[in-house]
Amino acid sequence: MEEAVTKIGLRADCAALIWNVYLDFEKMILNSAEGKESDILRAAFENSAKRMADITAFEDRLTDAEDLNEKLSILMEYIEFEMQTKDPVRIQMMFERAVCTSADNPNAAVWLQYGNWLDSSLKLPQVSVEVYARAVRHSPCTALWQQYFTALERSNATANEIDSKWPEARSTITTPDEGLSLYRTYIYLLRRRVAKEDGNDYAVVLEKFEEGAAFLAEKFGSHWDSPKAQYRKNYALFLYTVVKQPDKARKIWNDILASGSGHLAAAWLEAANLERYFGELNNARKLYYRAINSASDHPFTVIFLSFQCFILLWYLMLSYNSNEKSVLCKSWTRRSRK
């Protein structure tokens, strides 16, 4: 009886069936026992009866609703109403009712809202994992898989358990943006795993970065990472800052600048700043020079680039002899005239 009550005991549409049976059972026990009803039980019953009056309006609207979208809209309002009570049992019961209502035509948005509530309010990793497992089975999409991977990590699932789900998750990618988001979630998960194990071998992370670039390029063509090139930028930043492979990062940035971002002053600034802080000053100087001749989207930024280049040139000159300084000054003068 308790298990049945736990499953549907708070559903206003069908809970009466199980409660009537349960109450008859309890009355039989009560009649055979000595003593009076507990005041606590009486108060709980009265509160429940009052609560029933509050939710009657929602139940009437659900009864009158004809199509699925209308029912889901009412159920979302119902959930918001229940959230005001801050009773996790009632809220979870309403979410379960919503996903059951849309079972024939699964709605990813409902599952996502359910998962967000579990992650932010209930905060029981194992419960989240169980719900996400059902969610990706009924309504597979990259957003749900991202949250599923995060829930698995929080629940201390084994590496094998998490990694075994990756091929299925990857198969749900339908757009470049979805690919970027899903790969980023999984790659950062791998990075945290390596860091947690006190290791410095990020080979598995680098391998996944390479896999993502190849997979997305093959699936979506040459513009898979356009227009912001965020995937390759993340990869280059990781190479610069974590694994200390500036040469490889430099090649990625050269590819970014040559494949659609070369006219953007902000892209040149980003590449040059990475070289200044994590690469070599001389390479940063070269990037500033190239930026002055290539950037065309914002003239004021080009002036700023020119000034940055001058400052960097000045710092470099401090370490050169007089002949080298003369050569650098002449070079700068020629470029300034251009």
Defining traits:
elongated; 18 helices; single chain; 338 residues; mainly alpha
Order of helices and strands: HHHHHHHHHHHHHHHHHH
Low-confidence stretches: none
Q: Report the helical percentage.
A: over 70%
Number of helices: 18
Chain-averaged pLDDT = 86
Distance between the termini: 86 Å
Largest sheet descriptor: none
Number of strands: 0
Overall geometry comes to elongated
Structural class: mainly alpha
Spatial extent as radius of gyration: 30 Å
- Proportion in β-strands: under 5%
Q: What this model shows, in words?
A:
It contains 18 helices and no strands. By secondary structure, the protein is mainly α. α4 packs antiparallel against α5 (88-101).
Secondary-structure blueprint of this entry?
Layout: H1 2-8, H2 15-31, H3 39-64, H4 68-83, H5 88-101, H6 108-122, H7 125-138, H8 142-154, H9 159-163, H10 166-170, H11 176-196, H12 203-220, H13 230-241, H14 246-261, H15 265-278, H16 281-294, H17 299-317, H18 322-337
Helix pairs in contact: 3-4, 4-5, 5-6, 6-7, 6-8, 7-8, 8-11, 11-12, 13-14, 14-15, 15-16, 16-17, 17-18
